[in-house]
Amino acid sequence: ACLVGSEMCIRDRDTDTDTETDTDTETDTDDCDLITPDTTCELGVVLDAVSGDDGSTVSQTGSGSTWFLVQVQETNASIFEEDLSYTVLLESSSVDYDLYVYEGPQDGAPDCDVVPVQGVGEDGLEMVSADWDDDQGIGGEDDSLWLAIEIVHLTGSDCTAEWTLTVTGGT
To answer: Do 118 and 100 contact (CB within 8 A), yes or no?
Structure first.
């Protein structure tokens, strides 16, 4: 069931082959998987950047399926190598959400066409982690990268159940 009015529900009606937008304000009894994500990867909500080498965190709460973009930045300008890393954590209580992370190239833009890494975990926790080498040295390159993060509703009847997304750099 989704709360129509706070989420747009797109359904194919048995009596009508066209897609219809339901704008009632009552709770609908259809499955939550009929909720379409409120955005696409390319138009995902841009969250504050995190430091992949010195460490920092950004969090966001919400409900339903959606997309976010987060840059994991190289902020340590030392001539000594400081590797970069991140951890993306999705927490939810009463509804099962899946987490997918699309990692863009170093010193590049978000890449929504790469094969995503699916979060692992159970009991309302999904996690993706990665680390990479700092190509520092004299005349080094920028090792920052963008993450496109997709949250997908899987099961559970409360489509308004909240999740918390946390992205931590320098893990």
So the answer is: yes
pTM equals: 0.78
- Who wins on pLDDT, 108 or 2? 108
Query: What are the tens digits of pLDDT across the range 43-88?
Result: 899 999 999 999 999 999 999 889 999 999 999 877 788 899 999 9
Alpha carbon distance 47, 86 (integer Å): 14
80-to-55, 85, 111, 131 alpha-carbon distances in Å? 16, 16, 29, 17
Calpha distance 159→164 (Å, rounded):
14
- From CA 150, how far away is CA 113, in angstroms rounded? 12
Terminal Cα distance for the chain, rounded? 37
Neighbours of 104 (CB within 10 A): 20
Query: Do the Cβ atoms of 169 and 85 come closer than 8 Å?
Result: yes
In 29-119, alpha helices (H)? none
Strand partners, 96: 155
Phi-psi region of 29 (alpha: psi -120 to 50; beta: other; left: phi over 0): alpha
Mean pLDDT, rounded, of the chain = 79
Burial of 105 (0-12, 13-18, 19+ CB in 10 A): exposed
